[in-house]
Amino acid sequence: MAADEHVSMIPAASKVGWSAEVNGRGFGDEIESGAILLDVLRDQVGTLGVKRGCDMGTCGCCTVIIDGVARLSCLTLAGEAEGCEITTVEGLATGHHLAPIQEMFSECGGSQCGFCTPGFLLTSAALLAKNDSPSDSEVKSAIDGNLCRCTGYQQIVESIQAAAEILRSDAKSKDGTAAQMDPHPGLGAGDAGE
Amino acid sequence: MGDEQMKGYRQQPGKLPFKKPGSGGGKPFSELRDLDFIPESLDGRLAQPHGENRHDYLLTGSSIGRRTPMIDDRWKVTGQAKYGDDIRLSGELIGRILRSPHHYAKIRAIDTSVAEALPGVEYVLCGQGHKTLFGVLPVTKDEHALAVEKVRHVGDLVAAVAAVDEATALEALRLIKVDYEVLEPVHDMRKAIDDSEHPIHDRGKYHIGESNVQKRVFQEFGNISAMKDSLATSAAKWKFAGVNHGFTEPHAVVAHWDPSGRLTLYTPQQVPHYLHRALADVLDVPMHQINVYRTFVGGGFGGKSDPFPHEMCAAIMARETGKPVRITFDREEVFWTNRGRHPSLLEMVLHADQQGRISGIETDALIDGGAFASFGHVTTYYNGVLHTAPYEIGAFHYTGARVWTNKPASGAMRGHGAVNSRCAVESGIDDLCDRLQVDPITFRLANLLPPHSTTITGFRVTSIGMRECLERVRDASGWVEKFRKMPLGRGIGIGCGFFISGSGLPIHWDPNKFPHATVHLKVDMDGGVVVHTGAAEIGQGSDTVVAQSVAEVLGLPIEMIRIKSRETDTSPVDLGSYSSRVTFMNANAAISAAMVIRADLLAAAAEITAADEKMLVIGDRRIYVKRDPAVGVSYLEALHKALEDRGALVSSGSYRTPPMGKSHKGAAAGLAPAYSFSAYVAEVEVDMETGQSKVIEVWAAHDCGRALNPLAVEGQIIGSCHMGLGQVLSEEMVYGRTGHLRNANLLEYKIPTVHEMPKVTPIIVESNDPEGPFGAKEAGEGPLLPILPAVVNAIYDASGIRVNELPVTPDRLFRSIEKKIKAEEVDNALQLPNPNLQYSDLQNVVEARALDHGKRDDERQLDVEREPYHNGALFGLDPAIAPEEQTTDWVISLTPDEDYLADPRLAGSAWKHTERRHMGGEN
Amino acid sequence: MRTPPFNLHLPTTVSEAVQISAELRAEGRETDWIAGGTDLLPNYKWHLNTKSDVISLARIEGITSVSMTEIGAMARLSEIADGGEAHPLIAAAARKVASSLIRNSATLGGNICLDTRCFWFNQGEDWRSSIDWCLKCDCGTGADCRVIVNQNELCVATYQADLAPNLMVLGAAIHLAGPEGERSLPICEFFKLDGMTRNVLREGEMVVKVTLPDEVGQWQGEYQKLRLRESWDFPEAGVAAAWRLGGDGTLAELKVATTALESIPRLHDQEVAPIIAAGWSGEESITALAKAIQQTVKPVNNTAFPPNYRKKMTRVMCERALAQLSIN
After folding, report:
1. What share of chain A is helix, strand, coil (3-state, %, to 5)?
2. Would you call B753 and C230 a contact, using CB atoms and an 8 Å cutoff?
3. What is the mean pLDDT of chain B?
4. Structure pTM?
């Protein structure tokens, strides 16, 4: 489309109703018909943990889990995800109890600047939900759609394997509560919380 | 726990439960000092192979040296960390930037009337009203909020819009009509040396001819005339593509003026202080009316260390509209903002003499600065001076020039200015050794500067762990069994690195007595410590290392330390996260501040217990007599006593660099209070039929002085390998035949994926720096340097191809393989000969010297009364006296003579111009 | 990046989809199909040939099957790659597409219909304005082709999808549905040598499924993909080969196809036939065939690697794809 015959960016006034189960809670709002899921999650649902890195499917920072499958929210139409169960990074922890994958990314150096971390956590969570004993090469294949510029991936793979180990030992213990983490560790209270 | 045990000061350590207030994190019991983390010299069990450190007595065993997760990780793993675009203020407007479609053009007129009339548009900003120049370096301010008269590259900022939403802002951009007069652009950095009808910038009387040369450097040190009398010479012409930081978070900024007329600017910045200064200039308001709020930074690597035009635009439009303005970049805009590593043309000539010494290094570096100066003034020096160590050399000749071209600006990127020339020099040494038929690791070991020495350009080097790095990667990698012994297509290579640990001078030296880093501490009544620092946490762990330092000195669990580092309103001035300065300078400042509190606590404890203060040590939340741990008080008791006696416990600590270096022009460039060293071995596989290279494994030894947090140091080493691998094998800002940046997206700008990443074995070497915090030096940038030469040297070992163009993409290597097939007259690549090694007589010479120097260095490291050692001693001069003071053969020269100008190298030809002020006439 | 606004439609059957498309076009509006979205949405964000209405195939039932002989248009590549039901050659090729996250969204139909690519085309609107637009997208401007200048007729954008050559060598048929009913054709006849037209889909017509011959299980194959990185990257050249061995273990039939070298994927029966006719001699035949195929492909300079390199690598990949047939 050339400059003089371009398609207007101003959307039509009419919007459509949209609802989904985001992190276990129903959410409903009016959205633009062709809205991209990433935009809806960030600007309307308010789950700002879903990151926009490249917006073109080549960094994985915007990964969310839709009905059990890790998906790029930047390349998913919100309309197609209507009525689905969507998990963002905000939905991984149970109350104050971090999921093992979150705990281990911190423990093993899987997160440096942290911008890619939500995407990695969700891709890993989707992997571990299906396979709690992945080989290193299975882990690498699973995360090959996520880009990290800080860690060189090695400590990420270690984090995922450490989380897998916790999940396996959880599965063995009968009540499954063995590895619950300290809910109030008080680690590093600082500006981060502001 | 009975109340009896709580009374008096004879208490069993380890049995004291903490009650509120003052519980101190998750650990309910106080403990004795962990002697594994207390030095042997103080009766602990921590070995000190490199001697004692001035901070040893401050060690309490609580945090330093332990693998410590980042203290802000919980925000990151829960999605609560707020990065630039996550700052959402009510009533915000969305800002977008109109960018130049031309490489180079004059702006004749801008018509914004149609855009302004679009419903929802609140403000349209053009450059004319904001002509104040800014830039990160005070000597080369050449940027505007928006283009004023000219646009200088495709993507340069022309106008900005603030509107109620993104769609409206984007639509408005298309309604702005700009009348351009297109000028002839310069894309080729070689042509930029020449005079031009329209130089990209005009520096007035300091302009170099009528050219696009922004900065030129000429330096000669040492015995220049002797260097060419060599046994072997290696000469190569290199071409390095520009690379981008590739951080995952695009630039984003939110500006908000509060009702009192103060600006808060939320931005992911590495240098909030320099931005603070620039904002004050451009907005024409005093600095105290501006609060720069550093959000979480989604990767920096040098790419967020300039004050940026879009930050100015947001601030101006927020002021004009009275509403918060948020601007977030698309990835394309990130590439157009760039500030990445300079595309470079380098000529590297190395000489070795009869005794296997490096008798000379001649370097010529032409670097492509793109459209703006950014850090380029410094980069031009760094391309030369940062490869004058770790080797003792006979002579150093450097010509460097940085030119403006009509591309997005180059700037500082991890390993600033040192990466490309380091790759060339380490590859050149490999080539020299090949010509001399000696082992390249032995050769390096025989030519190292000793600890506590002075380099040829006058850098004061303190601790050096280079030798240990080399020895440990040699042993870990199985070097002796593999080097020159593997089949065609498989190879191993070595590369070394040397990098500054903080810059000796601040960028703003007005006035020059300011400390580089300052840290304030405030201790709460319940024992929690609030640390105010301006150091920019960018994911490298600067908050964590400061918290660790304070926790260590005060004997506290790290949970009791809270870091406030986000806002210039509340933080003391810190220069920012660049030049690998944070750990060295900021942790030193934090230690100084904590020492003040420590003294207060010890005095209070001595008073309560009546024990001699000198006998007291600090353990985990307990101060007690070293020989009788039962005599002591809890941290909280000592604190309360001190509070009663002295009032609030607050303190301040700062760090400033010692006087250093020679006095010639440019002597400050590359000066640092300490330097890091590293040596990597890489093993690669080269597919000889396709030219594809794959790095299989890397052994990476880095001397960081002391690993305050080994987890973070290893993370930096592995991450550096990843970034360096990208530059050496796949990453490249591709400018096509028309000069357009062809790959401004993360699909075509090829950052290595998890599959390209080899197994990296990080090896931490701790040389114990005398001035570093607890002996530490940098680990954030230096570890990137060696991976490039290690890989290109391994490619040579595998294929016999001496690479001299980066990145070594398969098509480039394949072209070289094809040439070699022709030259060797073989049928196909699989028949090519392998490089081999038959030791020459020189091998014995260098082996003996390496052994000898090993002993020399060990002794020197531990000798506190050591004499000075100047580069040049290896060539027979008195080590105690600077060479230029002993003999006229050793020179320092900073301007080319006529002989040189008669036949200059590429960058050296920048000296053909005269500065305008020296041309005569009205200037 | 923001797409221009469009209306999304979510039909649940093929006939409904075709009907919606027809109705919209009757109103003078333009439509696109969206399957996985991993190709269309990046292009939309770049403002490349966007339409007012987009019809999603995500809710349509019955077109997601994966078996040895049939794959639905909306079967996700992750399912084809890892589900264990598809032909091993198709599964292996699917595994090599982009990244795991892309494969979770991307579909068979979308991969086959992948838009052709070119570094003058796959750029943002601002970027394209800086080259004064491009023939493939910005037709109204009278823009020339930037790859081969001074000819604004043929678009030479490159077809860079992985599955098509593999489907070709296994003899797949593609099944389409449109306003004029359903039709099927061999997949080799699906593509059209023009970077803009790309294929034979008529207005309002969509891909429903691909079928493979019943005896496809007797065929083995190999797919070689040239790329810089093992994730994300489109093929810079791709060679698919499939063969059937006779009862005596000798080569009975051989098919070779290439992708990412021209505006369409191409089956190389013409090059294979004379080599087979001369009698298969293992390594020598492979060398000759690889050379012949290298000579026939005509890459242009619009992808990451230079065309002469891609052409030369076609031979190497061809040899490697056929390596299993070297002793015969």
Report:
1. 40, 15, 45
2. yes
3. 94
4. 0.96
